[in-house]
Protein backbone atom coordinates (compact mmCIF):
# COMPACT_ATOMS: atom_id res chain seq x y z
CA UNK A 1 0.00 0.00 0.00
CA UNK A 2 1.38 3.38 -0.98
CA UNK A 3 1.85 6.11 1.60
CA UNK A 4 -0.86 8.20 -0.09
CA UNK A 5 -3.41 5.39 0.06
CA UNK A 6 -2.49 4.60 3.64
CA UNK A 7 -3.00 8.22 4.70
CA UNK A 8 -6.40 8.24 3.03
CA UNK A 9 -7.45 5.06 4.77
CA UNK A 10 -7.39 6.57 8.26
CA UNK A 11 -10.80 6.87 9.84
CA UNK A 12 -11.39 9.75 12.25
CA UNK A 13 -13.91 8.40 14.76
CA UNK A 14 -14.35 11.46 16.93
CA UNK A 15 -13.02 14.85 17.87
CA UNK A 16 -14.07 15.90 21.34
CA UNK A 17 -13.02 18.46 23.90
CA UNK A 18 -12.55 17.52 27.52
CA UNK A 19 -11.50 20.19 30.01
CA UNK A 20 -10.24 22.42 27.18
CA UNK A 21 -8.33 19.48 25.65
CA UNK A 22 -9.24 18.28 22.17
CA UNK A 23 -8.81 14.54 21.58
CA UNK A 24 -8.88 12.70 18.27
CA UNK A 25 -9.48 8.97 17.80
CA UNK A 26 -7.97 7.57 14.61
CA UNK A 27 -8.57 4.01 13.40
CA UNK A 28 -6.76 2.09 10.71
CA UNK A 29 -6.70 -1.53 9.50
CA UNK A 30 -3.89 -3.22 7.61
CA UNK A 31 -3.31 -6.81 6.49
CA UNK A 32 -0.11 -7.88 8.26
CA UNK A 33 1.24 -11.08 9.80
CA UNK A 34 -1.33 -13.10 7.84
CA UNK A 35 -4.26 -11.35 9.53
CA UNK A 36 -6.10 -8.04 9.68
CA UNK A 37 -4.38 -5.78 12.21
CA UNK A 38 -6.47 -3.03 13.82
CA UNK A 39 -4.96 0.20 15.14
CA UNK A 40 -6.81 2.66 17.38
CA UNK A 41 -5.08 5.79 18.66
CA UNK A 42 -6.50 8.53 20.89
CA UNK A 43 -4.34 11.63 21.08
CA UNK A 44 -4.50 15.42 21.31
CA UNK A 45 -2.60 16.01 18.06
CA UNK A 46 -4.10 14.66 14.84
CA UNK A 47 -0.84 14.74 12.89
CA UNK A 48 1.12 13.00 15.63
CA UNK A 49 -1.55 10.31 15.92
CA UNK A 50 -1.54 9.74 12.18
CA UNK A 51 2.24 9.60 11.94
CA UNK A 52 2.48 7.26 14.93
CA UNK A 53 0.10 4.77 13.30
CA UNK A 54 2.23 4.90 10.15
CA UNK A 55 5.31 4.13 12.21
CA UNK A 56 3.54 1.29 14.07
CA UNK A 57 2.47 -0.26 10.75
CA UNK A 58 6.03 0.01 9.44
CA UNK A 59 7.39 -1.61 12.60
CA UNK A 60 5.09 -4.61 12.28
CA UNK A 61 5.99 -4.92 8.59
CA UNK A 62 9.68 -4.82 9.53
CA UNK A 63 9.27 -7.56 12.15
CA UNK A 64 7.22 -9.69 9.74
CA UNK A 65 9.95 -9.39 7.13
CA UNK A 66 12.42 -10.74 9.68
CA UNK A 67 10.45 -13.65 11.19
CA UNK A 68 7.99 -14.92 8.60
CA UNK A 69 8.84 -18.45 7.43
CA UNK A 70 7.00 -17.69 4.16
CA UNK A 71 9.05 -14.68 3.02
CA UNK A 72 12.13 -15.80 1.07
CA UNK A 73 14.29 -12.92 2.29
CA UNK A 74 13.36 -13.29 5.97
CA UNK A 75 15.90 -14.44 8.51
CA UNK A 76 13.70 -17.31 9.69
CA UNK A 77 13.30 -18.55 6.11
CA UNK A 78 17.07 -18.48 5.70
CA UNK A 79 17.60 -20.39 8.96
CA UNK A 80 15.15 -23.05 7.84
CA UNK A 81 16.70 -23.23 4.37
CA UNK A 82 20.18 -23.80 5.79
CA UNK A 83 19.93 -26.57 8.40
CA UNK A 84 23.19 -27.47 10.04
CA UNK A 85 24.63 -24.00 9.41
CA UNK A 86 24.78 -20.94 11.62
CA UNK A 87 22.83 -18.05 10.09
CA UNK A 88 23.52 -14.49 11.25
CA UNK A 89 20.38 -12.72 12.40
CA UNK A 90 19.18 -9.37 13.72
CA UNK A 91 18.84 -8.60 17.42
CA UNK A 92 15.04 -8.90 17.08
CA UNK A 93 15.10 -12.41 15.62
CA UNK A 94 17.69 -13.50 18.17
CA UNK A 95 15.58 -12.04 21.00
CA UNK A 96 12.40 -13.75 19.77
CA UNK A 97 14.10 -17.12 19.35
CA UNK A 98 15.68 -16.98 22.81
CA UNK A 99 12.42 -15.94 24.46
CA UNK A 100 10.62 -18.71 22.61
CA UNK A 101 13.07 -21.25 23.98
CA UNK A 102 12.54 -19.91 27.50
CA UNK A 103 8.76 -20.25 27.13
CA UNK A 104 9.12 -23.73 25.64
CA UNK A 105 11.11 -24.72 28.72
CA UNK A 106 8.55 -23.09 31.04
CA UNK A 107 5.67 -24.97 29.40
CA UNK A 108 7.48 -28.30 29.02
CA UNK A 109 7.31 -27.85 25.23
CA UNK A 110 3.54 -27.34 25.11
CA UNK A 111 4.61 -24.20 23.28
CA UNK A 112 7.28 -25.03 20.69
CA UNK A 113 9.03 -22.77 18.16
CA UNK A 114 10.34 -25.81 16.23
CA UNK A 115 7.02 -27.08 14.82
CA UNK A 116 7.58 -25.55 11.41
CA UNK A 117 8.06 -28.78 9.46
CA UNK A 118 4.96 -30.34 11.07
CA UNK A 119 2.82 -27.26 10.35
CA UNK A 120 4.12 -27.23 6.79
CA UNK A 121 2.84 -30.77 6.24
CA UNK A 122 -0.60 -29.87 7.61
CA UNK A 123 -0.69 -26.74 5.42
CA UNK A 124 -3.80 -25.25 7.03
CA UNK A 125 -3.60 -22.29 4.63
CA UNK A 126 -4.27 -24.49 1.60
CA UNK A 127 -7.62 -24.32 -0.19
CA UNK A 128 -8.18 -27.99 0.64
CA UNK A 129 -5.88 -29.00 3.54
CA UNK A 130 -5.49 -32.68 4.32
CA UNK A 131 -4.26 -34.62 7.34
CA UNK A 132 -0.69 -35.91 6.85
CA UNK A 133 -0.13 -39.62 7.34
CA UNK A 134 0.67 -40.75 10.86
CA UNK A 135 4.00 -42.11 9.63
CA UNK A 136 5.03 -38.68 8.39
CA UNK A 137 3.93 -37.00 11.63
CA UNK A 138 5.72 -39.57 13.78
CA UNK A 139 8.96 -38.95 11.86
CA UNK A 140 8.69 -35.15 12.02
CA UNK A 141 7.87 -34.84 15.74
CA UNK A 142 11.11 -36.65 16.51
CA UNK A 143 12.89 -33.58 15.14
CA UNK A 144 10.88 -31.15 17.29
CA UNK A 145 12.55 -29.67 20.37
CA UNK A 146 13.72 -26.20 21.37
CA UNK A 147 16.85 -27.66 23.01
CA UNK A 148 18.12 -28.62 19.55
CA UNK A 149 18.34 -24.97 18.48
CA UNK A 150 21.93 -23.73 18.72
CA UNK A 151 23.06 -20.16 19.34
CA UNK A 152 26.50 -18.66 18.68
CA UNK A 153 26.85 -14.94 19.26
CA UNK A 154 24.35 -13.38 16.82
CA UNK A 155 23.74 -16.56 14.82
CA UNK A 156 21.21 -19.41 14.99
CA UNK A 157 21.41 -22.99 13.71
CA UNK A 158 18.73 -25.68 13.47
CA UNK A 159 19.02 -29.42 12.83
CA UNK A 160 18.22 -31.08 9.54
CA UNK A 161 14.47 -31.64 9.01
CA UNK A 162 13.75 -29.03 11.72
CA UNK A 163 12.08 -25.72 10.92
CA UNK A 164 11.34 -22.69 13.07
CA UNK A 165 7.84 -21.25 13.11
CA UNK A 166 6.95 -18.39 15.45
CA UNK A 167 3.23 -18.49 14.63
CA UNK A 168 2.39 -19.01 18.30
CA UNK A 169 4.25 -15.91 19.49
CA UNK A 170 5.22 -13.77 16.50
CA UNK A 171 2.06 -11.65 16.36
CA UNK A 172 2.34 -10.85 20.05
CA UNK A 173 6.03 -9.99 19.68
CA UNK A 174 5.30 -7.63 16.77
CA UNK A 175 2.41 -5.96 18.62
CA UNK A 176 4.67 -5.28 21.61
CA UNK A 177 7.28 -3.66 19.35
CA UNK A 178 4.63 -1.47 17.70
CA UNK A 179 3.21 -0.43 21.08
CA UNK A 180 6.69 0.73 22.12
CA UNK A 181 6.72 3.03 19.07
CA UNK A 182 3.39 4.57 20.06
CA UNK A 183 4.49 5.11 23.66
CA UNK A 184 7.81 6.65 22.62
CA UNK A 185 5.85 9.08 20.47
CA UNK A 186 3.88 10.22 23.49
CA UNK A 187 0.55 8.74 22.41
CA UNK A 188 -1.94 8.97 25.28
CA UNK A 189 -4.13 5.94 24.54
CA UNK A 190 -4.03 3.17 21.96
CA UNK A 191 -5.05 -0.36 21.04
CA UNK A 192 -3.49 -2.75 18.55
CA UNK A 193 -5.33 -5.97 17.69
CA UNK A 194 -3.49 -8.50 15.51
CA UNK A 195 -6.09 -11.16 14.90
CA UNK A 196 -6.95 -11.59 18.58
CA UNK A 197 -3.55 -10.70 20.02
CA UNK A 198 -4.27 -7.36 21.68
CA UNK A 199 -2.41 -4.75 23.68
CA UNK A 200 -3.98 -1.51 24.85
CA UNK A 201 -3.00 1.33 27.15
CA UNK A 202 -4.57 4.53 28.41
CA UNK A 203 -8.35 4.98 28.28
CA UNK A 204 -10.91 4.34 25.56
CA UNK A 205 -13.16 6.96 23.96
CA UNK A 206 -15.40 6.94 27.03
CA UNK A 207 -12.49 7.64 29.37
CA UNK A 208 -12.61 4.09 30.75
CA UNK A 209 -10.51 0.95 30.47
CA UNK A 210 -10.68 -0.80 27.12
CA UNK A 211 -13.42 -3.44 26.91
CA UNK A 212 -12.34 -6.58 25.04
CA UNK A 213 -14.69 -9.31 23.91
CA UNK A 214 -13.86 -13.02 24.27
CA UNK A 215 -15.29 -15.10 21.44
CA UNK A 216 -17.55 -18.06 22.05
CA UNK A 217 -15.75 -21.03 20.41
CA UNK A 218 -19.11 -22.63 19.61
CA UNK A 219 -20.50 -19.43 18.04
CA UNK A 220 -17.56 -17.30 16.94
CA UNK A 221 -19.86 -14.43 15.95
CA UNK A 222 -20.84 -14.09 19.61
CA UNK A 223 -18.88 -13.44 22.81
CA UNK A 224 -18.67 -15.51 25.99
CA UNK A 225 -17.91 -12.34 27.89
CA UNK A 226 -15.73 -9.27 28.13
CA UNK A 227 -12.77 -8.04 30.17
CA UNK A 228 -11.64 -4.48 30.89
CA UNK A 229 -7.91 -3.75 30.66
CA UNK A 230 -5.36 -0.95 30.37
CA UNK A 231 -1.61 -1.30 29.82
CA UNK A 232 -2.21 -5.00 29.52
CA UNK A 233 -2.33 -7.66 26.82
CA UNK A 234 -4.97 -10.23 26.02
CA UNK A 235 -4.62 -13.13 23.59
CA UNK A 236 -7.05 -15.88 22.67
CA UNK A 237 -6.35 -19.18 20.93
CA UNK A 238 -9.36 -21.09 19.64
CA UNK A 239 -10.06 -24.18 17.57
CA UNK A 240 -12.35 -22.04 15.37
CA UNK A 241 -9.49 -20.01 13.86
CA UNK A 242 -8.15 -22.36 11.17
CA UNK A 243 -9.66 -25.79 10.68
CA UNK A 244 -11.14 -28.31 8.26
CA UNK A 245 -13.18 -31.49 8.29
CA UNK A 246 -11.93 -34.67 6.61
CA UNK A 247 -13.90 -37.92 6.63
CA UNK A 248 -16.15 -36.45 9.30
CA UNK A 249 -13.24 -35.61 11.62
CA UNK A 250 -12.59 -32.01 12.75
CA UNK A 251 -8.96 -30.84 12.60
CA UNK A 252 -7.63 -27.46 13.76
CA UNK A 253 -4.25 -25.71 13.68
CA UNK A 254 -3.20 -25.82 17.37
CA UNK A 255 -1.00 -28.88 17.43
CA UNK A 256 0.40 -30.92 20.29
CA UNK A 257 4.18 -30.82 19.68
CA UNK A 258 4.56 -34.33 21.08
CA UNK A 259 2.13 -35.95 18.62
CA UNK A 260 1.86 -33.53 15.71
CA UNK A 261 -1.93 -33.81 15.99
CA UNK A 262 -4.46 -31.11 16.94
CA UNK A 263 -4.82 -30.84 20.70
CA UNK A 264 -8.27 -31.92 21.91
CA UNK A 265 -7.98 -30.65 25.49
CA UNK A 266 -9.55 -27.22 24.91
CA UNK A 267 -11.81 -25.23 22.64
CA UNK A 268 -10.59 -21.79 23.63
CA UNK A 269 -7.94 -20.21 25.87
CA UNK A 270 -7.71 -16.52 26.79
CA UNK A 271 -4.65 -15.17 28.61
CA UNK A 272 -4.09 -11.76 30.22
CA UNK A 273 -0.46 -10.71 30.67
CA UNK A 274 1.84 -7.68 30.80
CA UNK A 275 3.17 -8.38 27.29
CA UNK A 276 1.34 -9.54 24.19
CA UNK A 277 4.20 -11.89 23.41
CA UNK A 278 3.69 -13.77 26.70
CA UNK A 279 -0.10 -13.82 26.37
CA UNK A 280 0.18 -15.16 22.82
CA UNK A 281 2.57 -18.00 23.69
CA UNK A 282 0.75 -19.00 26.87
CA UNK A 283 -2.61 -19.15 25.11
CA UNK A 284 -1.11 -21.71 22.73
CA UNK A 285 0.65 -23.64 25.50
CA UNK A 286 -2.40 -23.86 27.76
CA UNK A 287 -4.48 -25.10 24.84
CA UNK A 288 -2.09 -28.06 24.69
CA UNK A 289 -1.62 -28.50 28.46
CA UNK A 290 -5.34 -28.53 29.17
CA UNK A 291 -7.43 -26.47 31.57
CA UNK A 292 -6.24 -27.76 34.94
CA UNK A 293 -2.53 -27.95 34.11
CA UNK A 294 -2.70 -24.64 32.27
CA UNK A 295 -4.38 -22.80 35.13
CA UNK A 296 -1.88 -24.34 37.55
CA UNK A 297 0.97 -22.94 35.44
CA UNK A 298 -0.59 -19.47 35.27
CA UNK A 299 -0.99 -19.36 39.04
CA UNK A 300 2.81 -19.51 39.33
CA UNK A 301 3.28 -16.39 37.17
CA UNK A 302 2.94 -12.78 38.28
CA UNK A 303 0.37 -10.50 36.64
CA UNK A 304 -0.88 -13.32 34.43
CA UNK A 305 -4.40 -14.76 34.28
CA UNK A 306 -6.26 -17.25 32.12
CA UNK A 307 -9.77 -18.29 31.13
CA UNK A 308 -10.22 -21.72 29.52
CA UNK A 309 -13.07 -23.46 27.75
CA UNK A 310 -12.12 -27.13 27.85
CA UNK A 311 -12.93 -29.80 25.27
CA UNK A 312 -16.28 -30.49 26.92
CA UNK A 313 -17.28 -26.83 27.09
CA UNK A 314 -16.56 -26.40 30.81
CA UNK A 315 -15.24 -23.00 31.96
CA UNK A 316 -12.11 -22.58 34.09
CA UNK A 317 -10.71 -19.33 35.51
CA UNK A 318 -7.45 -18.47 37.24
CA UNK A 319 -7.96 -16.82 40.63
CA UNK A 320 -7.57 -13.24 39.46
CA UNK A 321 -9.15 -13.37 36.01
CA UNK A 322 -12.55 -12.04 37.06
CA UNK A 323 -10.84 -9.07 38.75
CA UNK A 324 -10.41 -7.65 35.23
CA UNK A 325 -14.08 -6.71 35.06
CA UNK A 326 -15.13 -10.00 33.51
CA UNK A 327 -18.81 -10.09 32.66
CA UNK A 328 -20.55 -12.88 30.78
CA UNK A 329 -22.21 -12.24 27.46
CA UNK A 330 -21.94 -9.09 25.38
Description of the molecule:
- Helices cover 31% and strands 30% of the residues.
- It is α+β, with helices and mostly antiparallel strands and 330 residues long.
- The protein has three domains: 9-69 and 166-208, no CATH class; 79-157, T-fold (Orthogonal Bundle), CATH 1.10.3980.10; 209-330, T-fold (Roll), CATH 3.10.520.
- It has a nine-stranded antiparallel sheet, with helices on one face. A three-stranded antiparallel sheet has the order 4-6-5, with helices on one face.
- β1 and β2 (21-32) form a beta hairpin.
- 41% of the residues are buried.
- Mean pLDDT is 92; it is low at 1-8.
Unreliable stretches: 1-8
N- and C-termini, Cα separation? 35 Å
Number of strands: 17
- Give the radius of gyration: 20 Å
Helix content: 25-40%
- CATH architecture group name of the largest domain: Roll
Number of domains: 3
> What characterizes the major β-sheet?
9 strands, antiparallel
Which strand-content bin applies to the residues? 25-35%
Instruction: Describe the global form.
Output: globular
- Which CATH class of the largest domain? Alpha Beta
Within CATH, the superfamily of the largest domain carries the name ApbE-like domains
Give the spatial strand order of the biggest sheet. 1-2-3-7-8-11-14-15-16
Helix/strand structural class = alpha+beta
Q: How are helices and strands ordered from N to C? A: HEEEHHEHHHEEHEEEEEEEEHHEEE
Overall pLDDT metric: 92
| CATH topological fold name of the largest domain | T-fold
Number of helices: 9
Amino acid sequence: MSLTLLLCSFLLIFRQSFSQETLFQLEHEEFLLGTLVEFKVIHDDFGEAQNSILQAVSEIQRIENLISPYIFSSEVYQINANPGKFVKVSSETLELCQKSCELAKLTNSAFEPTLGAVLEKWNFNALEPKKPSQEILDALVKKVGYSKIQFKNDSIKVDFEMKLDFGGIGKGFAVDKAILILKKNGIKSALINAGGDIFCFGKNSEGKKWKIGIKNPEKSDKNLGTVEISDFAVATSGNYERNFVENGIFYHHILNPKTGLPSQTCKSVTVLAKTCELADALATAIFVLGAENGIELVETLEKTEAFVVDGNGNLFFSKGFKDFGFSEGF
